[in-house]
Design goal:
Helix content: 10-25%
CATH topology: Jelly Rolls
Radius of gyration: 20 Å
Largest sheet: 8 strands, antiparallel
Oligomer: single chain
């Protein structure tokens, strides 16, 4: 290889690396919601249902719901136009809530929707239920009632979609996945603590919501401060 060819080759390699970095940056676009300034959430002013409480819970800002009439609705959709995505939510379900609860609901102007839900047992345990809907033919539910987690403690839950397959996770462990046809969403609304139609109220707290424009392979994180002995509210 001549010096000129070697120089051109090095330029091509450098350009490819730069393009790859730029592409990764686009894929990893992140929107984070926290609740220290509630009822303002990120750059949006939430519509408040009932009287959800913004308070410090176990050392972090959280938004807590009574399971009867508390919720918030935000007119935005961070997933609009995204072919891939991951939604991560840090939740602390109350062990005395109803069996079926919806803690996050996203729906666009075409009625495509995503829901993250809990199925609570009498033993104060819950299973994660996730749902993606594009049409009456194109939709999927992921739910395994045998995969149970303790209520009254903090957990990271996540729903990811890579363009063909949806998967959900609890505390970093994949629990289920399955194919579902789903086109990129349009603009829409998000509710926390309840369905957008104000049914299936959630009892518990939410500390953080993250929207990433990429299907993360291992989306949820377990941090030291989430150890059960630290975050067990029944103590």
């Amino acid at each position: 290889m001549t010096r000129q060819r070697r120089f051109l080759f090095m330029i091509k390699v450098a350009a490819a690396l730069l393009l790859g970095c730029a592409s990764s940056a686009v894929r990893a676009e992140l929107v984070t919601w926290t609740f220290a300034e509630f009822p303002r959430i990120a750059d949006h002013h939430a519509r408040v249902l009932g009287a959800p409480r913004a308070q410090i819970v176990d050392g972090r800002h959280a938004l807590c719901f009574d399971g009867r009439s508390d919720g918030v609705i935000v007119t935005t959709n961070p997933l609009a136009g995204q072919a891939q995505f991951t939604i991560e939510v840090l939740i602390k379900p109350d062990g005395t809530g109803d069996e079926e609860q919806r803690f996050l609901h996203i729906e666009d102007e075409r009625a495509s929707r995503l829901l993250l839900e809990t199925r609570l047992t009498r033993e104060r345990q819950w299973a994660l239920d996730t749902f993606m809907y594009a049409s009456s033919e194109d939709n999927r539910v992921l739910l395994d009632r045998a995969k149970l987690h303790a209520a009254d403690r903090w957990h990271w839950v996540a729903l990811s979609f890579d363009g063909r397959t949806m998967a959900h996770y609890v505390n970093g462990a994949k629990e289920m996945d399955g194919p579902v046809p789903f086109h990129p969403m349009k603009d829409g609304r998000i509710s926390l603590g309840v369905r957008l139609n104000e049914r299936s109220w959630y009892k518990g707290c939410i500390a953080e919501v993250r929207f990433t424009s990429e299907a993360l392979a291992s989306p949820t994180r377990i941090v030291d401060s989430l150890r059960p002995e630290t975050f067990d509210s029944r103590r």
